[in-house]
Amino acid sequence: MDIALAVIGGTGIYDLALEQAETRQIDTPYGTPSGALRIGLLNGNRVAFLARHGEMHSLPPHKINYRANLAALKQIGASRILALNTVGGITEHFAPRTLACPDQLIDYTWGRTSTFSEEPGTEVLHVDFSHPYSPLLRHKVLAAARVVGADVVDGGCYGATQGPRLETIAEIRRMHRDGCDLVGMTGMPEAGLARELKLDYACLAIIANWAAGCGDAQEITLNEVLDNVAAASAGLPELIGELARS
Ligand code: HPA
Known about the structure:
Blueprint: E1 3-9, E2 19-24, E3 37-42, E4 45-51, H1 66-75, E5 80-89, E6 99-101, E7 104-107, H2 135-148, E8 152-154, E9 157-160, H3 169-178, E10 182-184, H4 190-196, E11 200-210, H5 222-232, H6 236-245
Parallel strand pairs: 1-4, 1-5, 5-11, 6-8, 7-9, 9-10
Antiparallel strand pairs: 2-3, 3-4, 5-10, 6-11
């Protein structure tokens, strides 16, 4: 059975309740992925899962081998990727515990290997990235959310920062002026690499906290982040199960 969907889990999401799951350790020409892939059934459809930061959250955002992660998913035959990204909310519709399916992004990361055409002799790629997320997969995410009765904000601009520290209030103010609604550390280069591999890729952002200086933000703690991710993710298996079917 083909892989109907691959899911990359972010902070606070380290597995999916897959049935008859097997563990696959995959090697790629770009190195090893963040961890083993889990492949199993969700709603009777074959779904693959990879924890972006490793199973024990051992990899900081700038150390993740994004190329190996995507190449591994492509190698097992996945063509649709749902990226779960834990983020901070900047603008009013993106409060903690909200889910959002952004349609734009701005890349503030630096020093990460951000293309598959890095090696000498490989063809230089200038992929179109006007719409960084697959419009078709976004449409299906939003449709699946409607079917299962989950609230997902349609659209928004994801700002990808370098981390691993959180941002200053002035940095978030600048991102707000730039048009960002959400801030996270792992959205890039993942989305760009997925485009280079011609994968259908969309982001489902899980808003864990108000970004620095926004809403009623005080000090941002890991406990707050994990509690809000757990609360916002309660309906995710159902949504992802529906997406895998569609
Ligand atoms: N900033 C960047 N990344 C994040 C945040 C944030 O406030 N919350 C969760 N991931």
